[in-house]
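User:
Hi there, any thoughts?
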Amino acid sequence: MTVNWPSLESRKIIYDFGANNGDDVPYYLKKADLVVAVEANPSLCRKIEERFSAAIREDRLRVENCVVVGDGDDPEVYFYLHKRHHALGQFPQPDESVIGDYDKVLLPSQPVMQILRKHGAPYYIKIDIEHYDEVILRELFRSGIRPPFISAEATSIRVFALLAGVGEYSAFKLVDGATVAKKYKNHSISAGNSHELYSFPPHSAGPFGEDIAGEWMNADDLFYVLSTKKLGWKDIHATNLVQTDPVSRIEKRRHMRRHLRGWILAKLRSLQKEDILPR
């Protein structure tokens, strides 16, 4: 599917779907010409607009106060605002066991592709929408959107299946949300043509792309890591700018460990035969 992007947008654009209170915006402003922050909660959008009024005036930041949906033409939809934790607001109706913790409100909505067509081709898309990442990912891929960098929260194995199965993403990294502030404190990031130290705040999404520590993994290695570390508050990052070794590095390391263990055992047996070591 061909998308007709705005003609003026040759700019590097980051989409922050689920911008919350804007804690990721300062980092994204260092990485892109334009940041599009999309957030359903009106009070959080007002905070973003107050915090980054200068960037908005310079047209480096655009704020979309709406519920982002996969598709549909309803101008307003019901959204569930958490009464105590603003980060837990969600579009899908919460389970009956916890629905008392939410206020149901009617808010403006926009399909994800409408937002992209309005602002321009994405360089990086961050998706952090409670219990809805999978829907947005599926609609993006169905519409032929394959940005150089993309991430989504690994709350479901289906998120992994979408990112790893789309065919155009072969390199992956994982960011653990619980340790972002500690692991990425005074962390070196690229900003323009230079590097600088940056500390990511708690509850932020953390870095993306080459700013993430560690090597890129192939899908098999990512699946192994997810199976050992479990799903949850972890963001899967994918890129189509890096080619990884199709042979699993984890399997290579296992083979090397088995080989080394066999060599050590053979050496010990040889030393025992020579009476150098006790039997």
